From TrEMBL:
<keyword id="KW-0378">Hydrolase</keyword>
<dbReference type="InterPro" id="IPR029058">
    <property type="entry name" value="AB_hydrolase_fold"/>
</dbReference>
<dbReference type="InterPro" id="IPR051601">
    <property type="entry name" value="Serine_prot/Carboxylest_S33"/>
</dbReference>
<dbReference type="InterPro" id="IPR000073">
    <property type="entry name" value="AB_hydrolase_1"/>
</dbReference>
<dbReference type="Pfam" id="PF00561">
    <property type="entry name" value="Abhydrolase_1"/>
</dbReference>
<dbReference type="GO" id="GO:0016787">
    <property type="term" value="F:hydrolase activity"/>
</dbReference>
<protein>
    <recommendedName>
        <fullName>AB hydrolase-1 domain-containing protein</fullName>
    </recommendedName>
</protein>
<feature type="domain" description="AB hydrolase-1">
    <location>
        <begin position="149"/>
        <end position="271"/>
    </location>
</feature>
<comment type="similarity">
    <text>Belongs to the peptidase S33 family.</text>
</comment>
Length: 493
């Protein structure tokens, strides 16, 4: 394993004496206040959050007409508090009269620290369209930090589910609605919450994982005044204008082929098993096997198992064990039936002012048939998995996956709003530290380095010790290392 730290643009590192080092299980020492979570889970009016205290219902003193705060409750070594915020759907409209949605945030503090005044850490989850993990104990990086945040569009906030999206009359109406659920509005939501939650509307530290890191760079672009520090883990986006998806997919194809090679070298017995499955699917009536959800599993559908199987630390093992049972777990792996927002909005995270025009499909068509599963099976070659080549979404998925069947046209909006401001990033004054995973299959190393050169003052920790899931897999080590880079414990050179 190797690792290095790279200062791109040098600014004086920020020293924060109030942030103390933590042992993995000793969160009571952390001065970081909480972790927050965003999401859209329920498009209904927000009821006052109450809790039982000595037999009486009480309303938190932090509550206001647009903010309902619950009472503290416990999981092992942590104290939690739920918040519901009523926020504008469209921040460009008059906030008094525009449509509103509900955004949920969960506050997490070390036991005994919940009523103390401490700095806030905002956690932005990967995605788009997947909720934050619910904290069950003070383990991993939460044991180092102590706060959580759900992304707009998921979790316990106003939802984007198949049933809720079908209420919109046309694909154009849905696309116009979905434009309010991208990184720019996640930042607007974060600022809305910061001004109501942080004492005196002060700044907070942001930790962005994967797509959450993309959102954090949008935050740096448009609202740096709300930021004290930014930590990025496997989440530095391409920031050029137009649609960068083509460049992302071209850069990632070499990595996905490399990951396939590593997988089959570790589990060579799976080469024949996967070929047999592909042949069975191709020969089945209709070109695939019906799934319980109403969708169909085809050879190309099987290939998207790479989405979960090839890019995380235990993904190879989980993929191999799945093929021991072959059929049953497939729908559990894809996640599109319960989280359709990922498929609909994913290519748009690379788009500013234009459509992606099904970039993944177009770039895959340039590969000369390397990823043609049926052809590979007939020729006796290993079948290559796709899925997470820059997080590929294909138009055929909106036909074969039941939950997506009505939403294909909405995924290709032509006028997506801007997500980044390069001039602002070039003059950034917010201290930023980023963990860059050299073998990251989800976020291409070369493209990350191009963007990093645009963010003034960023410090990089480049390592191949972790995959994309390093924040989760490394316990508190990744978080601790990045904090050390910002608080003066890690030298610039």
């Amino acid at each position: 394993m190797w690792a290095t730290q790279t200062p791109l643009s040098l600014i004086k590192p920020l020293f924060l004496s109030r942030y103390s080092p933590l042992t993995p299980r000793s969160i009571s020492r952390t001065p970081l206040r909480n972790l927050l979570s965003f999401g859209y889970s329920r498009r209904s009016s927000v009821a006052t959050v109450t809790a039982m205290d000595g037999g009486a219902k009480t309303k938190s003193a932090n509550s206001s007409p647009d903010h309902n705060a619950g009472n503290w409750y416990s999981v092992p070594e942590l104290r939690l508090r739920d918040h519901h915020f009523t926020v504008p759907l469209d921040y460009s409209l008059d906030h008094r009269t525009c449509p509103k949605i509900s955004v949920f945030a969960r506050e997490v503090a070390a036991v005994g620290k919940e009523e103390q005044t401490m700095p806030y850490l905002l956690f932005l989850q990967g995605g788009p369209g997947f909720e934050c993990p619910r904290p069950t104990e003070a383990s991993g990086w939460i044991g180092k930090a102590c706060e959580e945040y759900h992304v707009r569009g998921t979790g316990l906030s106003t939802p984007l589910t198949p049933s809720s999206m079908l209420q919109l009359k046309s694909a154009e109406d849905l696309a116009d609605y979905l434009k309010h659920f991208r990184a720019d509005n996640i930042v607007n939501d974060a600022e809305f919450i910061r001004k109501r939650l942080v004492p005196d509307a002060g700044t907070w530290t942001v930790l962005g994982q994967s797509f959450g890191g993309f959102c954090a760079v949008t935050y740096l672009s448009f609202a740096p005044q709300g930021l004290k520090q930014v930590l990025l883990t496997g989440g530095i986006p391409p920031v050029g204008g137009g649609c960068s998806a083509d460049g992302v997919y071209r850069a990632c194809f070499e990595r996905i082929i490399h990951q396939n090679d590593k997988y089959y070298k570790r589990f060579p017995q799976d080469i024949e098993i996967v070929r047999e499955v592909v042949n069975h699917l191709a020969e089945h009536e209709g070109g695939g096997v019906p799934l319980p959800s109403g969708g169909i599993l085809t050879p190309r559908g099987l290939q998207i198992l790479g989405l979960s199987g090839l890019g995380s630390s235990t993904g190879f093992e989980r993929l191999h064990y799945m093929f021991e049972r072959v059929w049953d777990p497939f729908e559990k792996w894809s996640g599109f039936d319960t989280n359709p927002l990922y498929a609909i909005l994913h290519e748009s995270i690379y788009c500013q002012g234009t459509s992606s025009r099904w970039s993944a499909k177009r770039i895959r068509d340039e590969d000369g048939g390397k990823f043609d599963a049926i052809k590979a099976a007939k020729e006796g070659r290993p079948v290559l998995f796709t899925g997470e080549v820059g997080k590929m979404i294909f138009p055929w998925m909106f036909e074969e996956i039941y939950a997506l069947r009505h939403f294909k046209d909405a995924a290709q909006k032509e006028d997506w709003p801007p997500l980044y401001d390069i001039a602002s990033l070039n003059t950034n004054k917010v201290p930023v530290a980023a963990a860059v995973y050299y073998e990251d299959m989800y976020v291409n190393f070369k493209l990350v380095m191009e963007t990093a050169n645009q963010i003034a003052g960023i410090r990089l920790w480049i390592t191949n010790e972790y995959m994309h899931s390093g924040l989760r897999d490394g316990g508190g080590q990744v978080f601790d290392h990045l904090m050390g880079m910002l608080n003066g414990k890690k030298p610039l050179f």
